[in-house]
Amino acid sequence: MNLWCGKTDAEWREIWRLERLREDDMLVYHDEVGGQITGNALAEKFNLRVGRVRHLIRRRREDREREAFEDR
Fold it and tell me: Cα(23)–Cα(46) distance, rounded to whole angstroms?
C-alpha cells in the first residue's frame, strides 16, 4: 500500500480513470454543441479545471487541423 493522501495506488488509478472519462465526455459534448459553449461552462458542467478543459479543446482542434493538412 503506497499512501498518498491516505489513498492506495488502486484508489488513485480509479480516480484518474474517472477523470479521463469525464474529459472524454466533455469533448464529445463540446463536439455535439459545435463548440458553442465556453470553457468555463464546460469546466463547471463536467467538474473539471478550466485550464485543463481549454488545453484538451486546443489539443483536439490542433489534431484535427494536422489531420486535414496531412490529407491534402
Answer: 8
Grid coordinates standing for 29? 459534448
The residue extents of the domains of the chain are 20-71
Report phi then psi at 58, rounded to 5: -60, -45
What cell was used for 12? 488513485
In 3D space, the residue among 36, 34, 38 whose CA is nearest the CA of residue 50 turns out to be: 38
Which pLDDT belongs to residue 71?
Answer: 86
Residue pair 32/6 in contact by the 8 Å Cβ criterion:
no
Task: Identify the three-state secondary structure at position 7.
Answer: strand
The pLDDT of residue 6 = 83
User: pTM of whole model > 0.85?
Assistant: no
**Residue in the block written with cell 467538474:** 47
